[in-house]
Design a protein that fits this description.
Number of domains of chain B: 2
Pfam families (chain B): ABC_tran
GO molecular function (chain B): ATP binding; ATP hydrolysis activity; lyase activity
Organism (chain B): Mesorhizobium plurifarium
Strand content of chain A: 15-25%
EC number (chain B): 3.6.3.-
Structural class of chain A: alpha/beta
CATH architecture of the largest domain in chain B: 3-Layer(aba) Sandwich
Shape of chain A: globular
Distance between the termini of chain A: 26 Å
Keywords (chain B): ATP-binding, Hydrolase, Lyase, Nucleotide-binding
Strand content of chain B: 15-25%
Oligomer: heterodimer
Number of helices of chain B: 10
C-alpha cells in the first residue's frame, strides 16, 4: 500500500487547512502558557467519529511537520484499529514517517497510556481526551465548573475521592485520576491509568491534550509539576501487579489481562506492545521464565484455581496476546 | 459579645423591570439574633433573602457585614471569590427544598464534609469524624453516613442540609422556609433542633417563613412584609400579640385555631 500522492492532491498538508492549524496552534500556545487550563477551540469535523480521537488528531495535524516521525498508540498498543488507522491517515495526508518505536518517534499520539520507555525533550505526547472537565460528573453546569476553576474552588474534587474511600476503603479511582498542575489548575489527565500519573510529573516531553467533541485543548509544558490529588491519611498510590509480564517478564510496568480461552485461561502482558517486543527481541533482556529471582523459576504466579495451559505449553510468540484478544 | 451589629442593611431595593421585588428595606442584625421575615407569598421576602445572601444583586441600597476580623465589608462590592468564600465558611443557606442545597448523588458524609474539603481539610479520618459528629447532632444515625440523601425522608434531608451548613461554624445562616413541606410532627422536631442549635452555637439567622408559629418559636425579632415593603417590625412577641399595622392584624387573625 504505497502512498498515492495523486489521490490526496486536493488535501492540504496534514488534512487541516492552514487557518485552522493556526487557530489550533494559538490554542496550544495558550494552553502551554497556562498549564492545565482548558482552552476552548473551534474543533473541526474530522473524517472519523467523535470518541475515536478527533481532538488528538487535530492537535497532531497542527504540530506535525514533514520531518516528524509519528507513533500512534491505543491503550498502549501500536496494532489496534484506532492506532493503525490514525497512523495510516497521517502517512497518507502528511506523507510523514511513522514508527512503532517509542524512542524513534518525535510525536506520539496516545489513547490512554504513556509509553514505558522514558520520553525526552525532543518528543511531544498528544493525548486523546473524551471528557476534559475533571469536575464534570460532580457539577454538570459548564458555567459553574469554569467559575470553580477560575476561583480555584477545588473542594468538590476531594468529595469524589472521599466517596471512594467511604465506599471502598481506599481511593478506587484507577483512571482519569485528577491531578493538580503547577499548583494551580486541577486537570483530567485523560483516561490513562493512574499508573501513568507519576510519569507526567516533570516530564521532559511536552504533553498536549485534545478533546474534539468537547472542543478543548490543554497542555502540560516540559518539567511541570503534576501532582495527583489525595488525602493525608490516604496518599496517592499507583497500581501494583503481583506478577511480571507473561511475555517479557517486565516488572513495574502496566499490564493488561488477556483472556486465552473459554476455560478461564488468562495471562497478564505488557500493555505497551513496543516495550514488550523490544525486550523480547533483545537477547540480553531477560525473557520470561529466565527471571528466576523475580517470577519464582518457571512457574508463573497465576492463581492455582485457574490454570493457564495454553500459556504453560507454548513458548510465547510475537503477537500471541493480540491474537488471543 | 460586642455591641456592634453583624449585618447592616440600608435602603435595599430590588426591581424586576418595573415590578417591585422588595423596596427600601433597612435593618440591623446583631450576633446571635434570629430575625424572622414573614408575609404572604409574593411579598418579596425570598427576594430580600436572596439579595442579602448575595445570590441576587439588589437594584439599589447597601448591606455591610462585619467579618471575623472585625472589619466592615460592603457585600455588593466584594469580589465574587470573596463572596463565595464567605458563603461557604461564615454563612449558611438552608433552602426550602433540600435537593437545592444538597448534592443528591454523593453520600451524607460527603455532603457534610464538602465544606471542610473546600476550605482545605485534606485528612479523611478527621473529615469523617466531624461528619459523624454533625450527623448525630442533627439526629441522623451514624450508620446512614454512606447513604445518599436520595434514600432519606424529607425531614432527614432537611436536617442533613442544616448539618452541611453548620459544619464550618458559620456566624450567619439564611433560611428559606426551613420547615416548608414537612408534616407537623417532623416540623416540630426540626424546630426544636434548630432552636437548640441556634442557642448553642450563638448563630445569627434570618428566617423567611409564611408560618407565624415558626416565627414565634425561632425568632426574637420579626419583620412583616407586604408588596415588597416592610409594614411592621419589632420584637416577635410584641408583633404577634399586639399587631399594629392593619395587614399584620389581618395576618395574625388568619391563623387557624385547632
Amino acid at each position: 500500500m504505497n502512498a498515492q500522492p495523486t489521490e490526496i492532491a486536493t488535501y492540504n498538508f496534514a488534512y487541516l487547512d492552514e487557518q485552522t492549524k493556526r487557530m489550533i496552534r494559538r490554542a496550544i500556545l495558550k494552553g502551554i502558557a497556562i498549564p492545565g487550563y482548558q482552552v476552548p477551540f473551534a474543533s473541526r469535523e474530522m473524517p472519523m467519529p467523535y470518541g475515536w480521537g478527533t481532538g488528538g488528531v487535530q492537535v497532531t495535524a497542527s504540530i506535525i511537520g514533514p520531518d516528524d516521525v509519528l507513533k500512534v498508540i491505543d491503550q498502549g498498543a501500536d496494532d489496534t484499529t484506532n492506532a493503525v488507522s490514525i497512523r495510516a491517515f497521517f502517512k497518507k495526508v502528511a506523507n510523514v514517517a511513522v514508527t512503532t518505536e517509542t524512542a524513534a518517534a518525535t510525536i506520539i499520539q496516545t489513547r490512554h497510556r504513556i509509553p514505558e520507555h522514558p520520553l525526552t525533550a525532543r518528543q511531544v505526547l498528544v493525548f486523546q481526551v473524551p471528557i476534559p472537565e475533571p469536575l464534570r460528573f460532580l457539577e454538570p453546569r459548564e458555567t459553574e465548573t469554569r467559575k470553580m476553576h477560575a476561583l480555584e474552588e477545588y473542594g468538590l474534587m476531594h468529595v469524589k475521592l472521599y466517596e471512594d474511600i467511604a465506599r471502598h476503603g481506599r481511593i478506587a479511582t484507577t483512571y482519569a485520576y485528577p491531578v493538580k498542575v503547577e499548583g494551580r489548575y486541577v486537570m483530567d489527565p485523560s483516561p490513562t491509568p493512574k499508573f501513568d500519573n507519576p510519569k507526567m510529573h516533570r516530564s521532559p516531553a511536552l504533553q498536549l491534550f485534545g478533546a474534539g467533541r468537547e472542543k478543548r485543548i490543554y497542555a502540560v509544558p516540559p518539567f511541570t509539576d503534576v501532582v495527583s490529588l489525595d488525602f493525608e491519611d490516604h496518599p496517592f498510590e499507583v497500581q501494583t501487579f503481583d506478577q511480571p509480564c507473561a511475555l517479557c517478564a517486565a516488572e513495574n510496568v502496566y499490564l493488561d489481562e488477556v483472556i486465552l480461552d473459554d476455560h478461564g485461561g488468562h495471562m497478564f502482558v505488557c500493555s505497551d506492545t513496543d516495550h514488550c517486543e523490544k525486550r523480547r527481541a533483545d537477547p540480553t533482556s531477560p525473557l520470561w521464565g529466565g527471571r528466576a529471582e523475580g517470577a519464582g523459576g518457571g512457574s508463573l504466579a497465576t492463581p492455582p484455581t485457574t490454570p493457564t495451559p495454553a500459556l504453560r505449553a507454548d513458548p510465547p510468540r510475537k503477537g500471541e496476546g493480540k491474537e488471543a484478544e | 459579645m460586642t455591641d456592634e451589629p453583624l449585618l447592616r442593611v440600608s435602603a435595599l431595593s430590588k426591581f424586576y423591570g418595573s415590578r417591585v421585588g422588595c423596596e427600601n428595606v433597612s435593618f440591623d442584625l446583631w450576633p446571635g439574633e434570629v430575625l424572622a421575615v414573614v408575609g404572604e407569598s409574593g411579598s418579596g421576602k425570598t427576594t430580600l433573602l436572596n439579595c442579602l445572601s448575595t445570590r441576587l444583586l439588589p437594584s439599589s441600597g447597601t448591606a455591610s457585614y462585619r467579618m471575623r476580623d472585625g472589619q466592615w465589608r460592603e457585600l455588593y462590592r466584594m469580589s465574587e471569590a470573596e463572596r463565595r468564600f464567605l458563603m461557604r465558611t461564615d454563612w449558611g443557606f438552608v433552602h426550602q427544598n433540600p435537593a437545592d442545597g444538597l448534592r443528591m448523588t454523593v453520600s451524607a458524609g460527603a455532603n457534610v464534609g464538602e465544606r471542610l474539603m473546600a476550605v482545605g481539610d485534606r485528612h479523611y479520618g478527621r473529615i469523617r469524624a466531624t461528619a459523624v459528629d454533625w450527623l448525630s447532632r442533627v439526629e441522623i444515625d451514624e450508620d446512614r453516613i454512606d447513604d445518599e440523601p436520595r434514600a432519606f425522608s424529607g425531614g432527614m434531608r432537611q436536617r442533613l442540609q442544616i448539618a452541611r451548613n453548620l459544619v464550618t461554624g458559620p456566624r450567619l445562616v439564611f433560611m428559606d422556609e426551613p420547615t416548608g413541606g414537612l408534616d407537623v410532627s417532623v416540623q416540630a422536631r426540626l424546630l426544636d433542633l434548630l432552636r437548640g442549635l441556634v442557642t448553642d452555637l450563638g448563630l445569627a439567622a434570618i428566617v423567611v417563613t409564611h408560618d407565624l408559629a415558626v416565627a414565634r418559636l425561632l425568632s426574637q425579632r420579626m419583620m412583616v412584609m407586604k408588596d415588597g415593603r416592610v409594614v411592621e417590625s419589632g420584637l416577635t412577641d410584641r408583633v404577634l400579640d399586639d399587631p399594629r399595622a392593619p395587614y399584620t392584624q389581618l395576618l395574625v387573625s388568619s391563623i387557624l385555631q385547632v
